[in-house]
What does this fold into?
Amino acid sequence: MVAVVDALWEGLRDTGVTWVGFYVDVPGESDDRRLVLGPCRDTPACSPIGLHGVCGQALRFGQPRIVDDVTELGAGYIACDPRDRSEIVVPLLDGSGCCWGVLDLDSHTVGGFDESDEQGLRRVLAAAGLGKE
It folds into this structure.
């Protein structure tokens, strides 16, 4: 996961991506403590975040989330950096389709991510053995 975060950060930080990181599920914890911060770049982030927000939704439903404007999410949004305006979260699925964590990227730009980003991130995760394409 460290190598993936480092490679994504080096490749994307000049494109408007402001943060890259993993959150890993801890199923034995209460729902408000289940997602804990894994490797990340470039600043610290909130942890644990539980099953709240966009990351929690991606984990619970095993589906990616692309948010064009996080200000439209209201009170359910977890703002580790108040300058963030868009976010993409890709679930990490094991061989049986069970979600064990998520990859999260943020941007200060509204509409910073789209489906092509999701596809590219899925390919990176699959190549690293962290998910399915």
Remarks:
- The radius of gyration is 13 Å.
- Helices lie at 2-12, 53-61, 115-127.
- The chain has a mean pLDDT of 91.
